[in-house]
Amino acid sequence: MRNSDRCRREPAALARRARPALACRARHPRARGTVVASLALGIALSATTLPACAQSTVDPAARVAALRARLASVETRTARVADVDALENLQGSYGYYTDKMLWDEVLDLFADDGTLEIGPSGVYVGKDSIRRYLLSLSSGKQGPLEGVLYEHFQLQPIVTVAPDGQTAKARWRAFLMTGVYGSGSGGNWGEGTYENEYVKQNGVWKIKKLHWYTTFIAPYEGGWLNASKKLVDDYALGRGVTPDRPPSEAYDAYPGVYVPPFHYKNPVSGE
Amino acid sequence: MRSESSLRARSLLAALAAAALCGACSRSAPPGNADLKAAIADLEKAVAAAKAEVQRLEDVDELENLAGIYGHYVDKNRHDDVADLFAPDGVVEIYGRGAFLGQDRVREYMHNLSPGSVGPRDGSLFNHMHLQPVIDVQPDGKTAFVRSRPFILFGIANVNAQWGVGVYENVFVKQDGIWRLGYLHGYYTMYTNYEDGWAKKATPIFGEYARLPPDRPQSVAYAAYPSAFVPPFHYKNPVTGRADHYGDPTYHDPQKK
Known about the structure:
The complex is a heterodimer.
Chain A: H1 2-14, H2 19-27, H3 29-40, H4 60-99, H5 103-108, E1 110-118, E2 124-125, H6 126-136, E3 148-161, E4 167-180, E5 188-201, E6 204-219, H7 229-236
Parallel strand pairs in A: 1-6
Antiparallel strand pairs in A: 1-2, 3-4, 4-5, 5-6
Helix pairs in contact in A: 1-2
Chain B: H1 2-27, H2 34-75, H3 79-84, E1 86-94, E2 99-101, H4 103-112, E3 124-137, E4 143-156, E5 160-175, E6 178-193, H5 197-200
Parallel strand pairs in B: 1-6
Antiparallel strand pairs in B: 1-2, 3-4, 4-5, 5-6
């Protein structure tokens, strides 16, 4: 209410010198409506956001410049929120494409110099290498295979966009259900953590670094009681292809323990 | 993250409201030169664009909530709450059950899930987790598409227990300023019994209810796992914009590819 009151009071306080402010209220009912709308949102505007009608003695050009600066700040903040949404869509799309082994679609999500590392796979650098790796997982075929379940849930995003909006990092969790029908056994559960990096090129977010840390791969029968390194290798290692670099970190999946490094500090303590 | 962005979007909207007011007032300031008028006109345009973008971001948050709310209601057999989420001409089409047209028929469909009973029942597990939303609000701000992933834990105590996974490709429409379900389309990927897992057996796709025939058969014919099928995507590749196969349910056919 403070600002619309101010609009109403200013003419009296400033007498005739402030006629524009009076005009503001009389001629622009929509502007007042906008203030009411913002109040309905429960936002009390501070004195630093006084409307121009209350500052009508200030040089108009200076006021315009000040508004432009304020708007630029709002635009930047808006863009960062939009970036978060775009990145969630990007990684979510990665999951849906991977489910169905739509490798061309997956590859398109990467920057040209993007890297991929899945558990102990080693690091594949650039689209050609990543393509070789992905196709090796499905006998060189694209698209879903009969009798193969390859669900890759993408969950629990923690997205951090750099202040300049050109790079971002995100921690995610993948939950896997994989297996081959009719094998009698071999259905697997899997779970692990991504620490990914993204880059914005020509206004479009792309995956710069996809790094999945295996927590466990376990057979359906017995569940994580029977988790094993062999299952991790079966899931993650390329078949007949060689990575460009060895694994970037040495660790054992469950029953081993490892904490994938966090890209963020504790958001409350800052430590 | 999106719930945080909702708060941020609202504070942005408030700041924009102040900026809009200031812009409006400036128009009634003592006449300045042409440059000033042009600068103000530019500012007004930029404020309008920013407001539209904030609106879109708020829509994304609301849609994420709505998609999640649907799942929470379904879990607990709150059939009328579910039906109320639909537009008057909303459609529900789940797995092979066929399509039910209009909110009244949606209500019938939902009640049919537990005939004569509303609300959670002892001994019944009906969990529908709704995960991984990919949300796209269309430029008109009146239509939105959401792909999401249901993870289903179904059970009747001491009788059976099942897993289910699939994909939702849902259409939302904004009517009277409120987002509603315009078309809920659930694609079935895999169902199986808990004791069997998915490497031994899988349950064929559910067919139409004999006791409640649909208004229309399912709109896309497909078989569940172990068959291979790609539920059509509402979106083009987010990086390249390529849309070779989107919306084409025969994409999985290698002959066609």
